[in-house]
Write a structure and sequence with these properties.
Helix content: 10-25%
Mean pLDDT: 93
Number of domains: 3
CATH architecture of the largest domain: 2-Layer Sandwich
Structural class: alpha+beta
Distance between the termini: 25 Å
Shape: elongated
Largest sheet: 8 strands, mixed
Number of helices: 6
Radius of gyration: 19 Å
CATH topology of the largest domain: Alpha-Beta Plaits
CATH class of the largest domain: Alpha Beta
CATH superfamily of the largest domain: Pseudouridine synthase I, catalytic domain, N-terminal subdomain
Low-confidence stretches: none
Strand content: 25-35%
Length: about 230
């Protein structure tokens, strides 16, 4: 088994973040520093992360959180900011966040120790839609919205097509539902910034058809078996 897949299945982190641990030299196999892409024998090799032995998970866990602003979506933060892990009850056990919501964003965030499901939800080829509530000051002309929906160049790469529709409009602000199928860093904020508008509020409200079911800010609950089955099919 490839080392990043093994670590993800052990509930260490997503495959992407496991690669970062390997790059930083924090993973050893049988006492030797591991290399990216290394194949391991998951049943006989001794694998340590930051000096602690890791083993395959026998039972997977799945949770959702209504993430508040002011937390980073990572297991540890090198700037010593508060992380979403600080909001998890001790009974949750060893899980990691699936993807990210930036420090100033809030809303639906999933946690699991199921590396395969995490990879499925994050892999760009699966194009799983994610719905956000976005608030800006003022409004944007319809012609500009149509341009944003078709994709714009951000950081040298064109964004995929997205859905944008007005859900509330006043003289001072406009709220939109935005559906994207990519997971690029701060994509929605940069999308609106390309139209000259700063996002004042950003909340993820759905992953596929999965919503938060009235979950309050900062609260966490276990996913139902039906919800887990849905995420494995979406």
């Amino acid at each position: 088994m490839r080392i990043n897949k093994f670590l993800a299945e052990c509930g260490v982190a997503s495959r992407r973040n496991c690669d970062n641990l390997i790059k930083d030299g924090l993973v050893t196999v049988n006492g030797k520093v591991c290399k990216l892409g290394q194949e391991i024998d998951e049943h006989n090799d001794s694998i340590l992360v930051n000096g602690k032995k890791v083993n395959l998970v026998k039972k997977y866990s799945y949770y959702m959180m209504n993430k508040p602003k002011g937390y980073v979506s990572t297991v540890k933060d090198d700037k010593e900011r508060k992380t979403v892990m600080d909001l998890l009850p001790p009974s949750v056990g060893r899980v990691f966040p699936v993807g990210r919501l930036d420090y100033d964003s809030e809303g639906l965030l999933l946690f699991t120790n199921d590396g395969d499901l995490c990879n499925r939800l994050l892999h760009p080829s699966n194009e799983i839609p994610k719905t956000y509530l976005v608030k800006i000051e003022g409004s944007i002309e319809d012609s500009v919205i149509e341009r944003l929906k078709k994709g714009v160049i951000i950081d040298g790469v064109k964004t995929k097509k997205c859905s944008i529709r007005v859900v509330e409009e006043t003289k001072s602000f406009t709220k939109y539902h935005v559906i994207v199928t990519e997971g690029r860093n701060r994509e929605i904020r940069k999308l609106f910034l390309s139209a000259g508008k700063e996002v004042k509020f950003l909340k993820r409200i759905k992953i596929g058809d999965l919503g938060m079911s009235g979950l309050k800010r900062g609260d966490v609950r276990k996913l139902t078996s039906e919800e887990v089955d849905y995420l494995k099919r979406v």
